[in-house]
Amino acid sequence: MLFNSPRNIAVINASIITVVSLIAIIVISVLEIPYSLITWLSFLIVVFLTALITINGSINKFINEKIRVIYKTIGKLQPRNDKKPNDNSDVLDIVNQVVLRWSEEKKKEIEELKQMATYRREFLGNVSHELKTPVFNIQGYVHTLLEGGLKDDSINIKFLKKSVKSVNRMIALVEDLEEITKLESANLKLNMEVFNLYELTKEVIDFMERKAIEHNTTIAINTSLSKIIKVKADKKRIRQVLINLIDNAIKYGNLEDARIKISIYNFHDNYLIEVQDNGIGIPEENIIRVFERFYRTEQSRSRDKGGTGLGLAIVKHIIEAHRQTISVRSNLGEGTTFSFTLDMA
Ligand SMILES: Nc1ncnc2c1ncn2[C@@H]1O[C@H](COP(=O)(O)OP(=O)(O)O)[C@@H](O)[C@H]1O
Ligand SMILES: [Mg+2]
Fold this sequence. Notes:
Largest sheet: 5 strands, mixed
Distance between the termini: 70 Å
Shape: elongated
Radius of gyration: 38 Å
Number of helices: 8
CATH architecture of the largest domain: 2-Layer Sandwich
Helix content: 55-70%
Order of helices and strands: HHHHEHEEHEEHHEE
Bound molecules: adenosine-5'-diphosphate, magnesium ion
CATH topology of the largest domain: Heat Shock Protein 90
CATH class of the largest domain: Alpha Beta
Strand content: 5-15%
Structural class: alpha+beta
CATH superfamily of the largest domain: Histidine kinase-like ATPase, C-terminal domain
């Protein structure tokens, strides 16, 4: 308490030195010690030692008390070399370093929190924007039907069909959102198993066949492949990856002679899977953004395929959860190739 401010310390030290000097003077006069050089030197030495001890002691106490408070405040943070602030010569240096590092870490944390907040705001904005279109469409159709359209055979079935389309679009969006949320939750568990990738690919091609035919698209699997390609991965999720990539290849495919080719290569200790189309392609400046949530290029928007823009974000999440990579190369107007890797079993 006594040493809680520089002013107190100065007052206490000055008082002690004055009192000691006074006692020395009194002793000299009472004992009638002659005023010789030795007397004066002894007097100065006594004053000097008193000043040294009291000033040194009180400053150390002051610094240590203050620093203990700073240490407590900052918490677990200690200097990296674990020096304790007892060597008084660099104690302020150490504290300075700790505080600097601490402030830098806090700054980074705040930056991250701000980014998260922005991300959440944008995400909510995107979701409501995407939901708005189908909801308003359905509202329009239902109102028209209620206000007499129901009896008008030229529109009643047509509007109901359009409503169903909008409902389906909303369902797709909600399902994708659910999937993204699941994939982004920290405790995502992959269901790893060994399976034949060749067979899975065949199965997905069969599953997509109807949509491919509707779009006059042929899907071929590279025939030079062995029919047994054992991989270790989450089969259900890889299935989803293949469906999303093939779905895109169909949607954004060539309008005349659309061809999709799926190839699987040996790639170091992995397999490299490629889904290649000869479709509209992706402009070079947009290519790094296609994996972003809700991102769609102008070209794909104008095709009005009713996508959610979440497909590739989901694909990337799944591949990265497997600790594998996915990449894309594309030439505008010529076609696009997505390639990802998977572990050999
Ligand atoms: N094979 C492809 N050819 C051309 N563009 C593609 C292809 N795949 C994806 N894209 C572009 O990337 C965007 C994001 O894809 P995705 O996340 O699957 O969304 P969606 O399929 O809902 O449009 C698409 O809107 C499109 O612009
Ligand atoms: Mg898609």
